[in-house]
Amino acid sequence: MHAEPLYLVKEQDRRIRAGHCWVYSNEIDGGRSPLKAYQAGQPVDIITHQGKWMGSGYVNPHSLICARLVSRDHDYSLGVSLMVHRLKVALSLRERLFARPYYRLIFGESDGLPGLVVDRYGDVLVVQLNTAGMEWVKGEVITALEKVLRPSCIILRNDSPVRESEGLELYVEVPVGERPDFLEIEEGGCRFQVAVTEGQKTGWFFDQASNRSRMIPYVRNRRVLDVCSYVGAWGIRALSAGAAEAFCVDSSGMALEQAQNNAAINGVQERLATLEGDAFVALRELRNESQRFEVVIVDPPAFIKRRKDVKAGMLAYRRLNQAAMQLLAKDGILITSSCSYHMSGEHLVQTLQKAARHLDRSLQLLEQGAQSPDHPIHTAIPETAYLKTYMLRVLPSF
Predict the structure, then answer these.
(1) b vs e for 29-50, b when ≥16 Cβ sit within 10 Å of the residue's Cβ?
(2) Which pLDDT band holds residue 1 (cuts at 50, 70, 90)?
(3) Active centre residues (catalytic)
């Protein structure tokens, strides 16, 4: 389909020139490019106010981010050829980083394919088309993935709430192969299984893999609490590294059943305990029972999804981490994360410090981590940097 021109307002091309790929609805010249004239996902050429071509991409008149630039080369627009090339570029990085094929293969804008997420579970690919533009070229995405990787199965997990903001329906589909009973992952010498369609996101949080490896020196012979554990990735890796015991807390009974199954797969089930419930309530129950742990891991979902949520979200992070510190034994280790883009690392550290001072504790920041390198950060797109993980020593006040 021929790409229609999308004109920008005067002096609204600076961010695109600097390397970003998003165009907001208030940056469009509505006189020359009335948004109501475009279909969601339609290919467009992005043009400056002066008439200079900047690149090709796609538009969604129903979204605040109403266009995304995909190519700055006149000869290549969003199609199979471009996708195959960018898949190969992305694959070369992952194959350099990982000995086994378990990782995020495509991380949207950072891999030059905005709106597309592809996670690799061996020869099974789980794909998310999170924008109208990627939904528009669904067939081309599948063709390119088959050409580059020849997977036995492709699962479209198009059930993420982010699609609703794009005006897209939610669905799960298996366009290639037969859906397996479960997805298999290998990480840090451990093996895991997760539900194919019932799990969160695409089933696994590959972004924390590097930080879980950072955890290893802190857990040997220690009692570990894994808060918001999901299917037990942190806790089971701790047990496999020699932790004396791991206690997984999650609000999902199904996730905890999978955690127990994963513990059995790795031969550590006798040292795993679980508690189903809201994290805040569960931590209070453990405190009332005078439970103590030498390592507490806090890896909650995003408490801040939008800028207006910052104040309430920071309070939630403070309350949760304060409750976690109250369960730490003397000279304990707190490993805590935030996946909220709108919560900067500096603000998270300040929040942790306030929680510690309320309890008359002192903190030593030992290590800090970000998302694993299969979630590369595009240096012109700060929104691609979202994960903060800190490893802290919690001591009596000094």
Answers:
(1) beeebebeebebbbbbbbbbee
(2) low
(3) 339
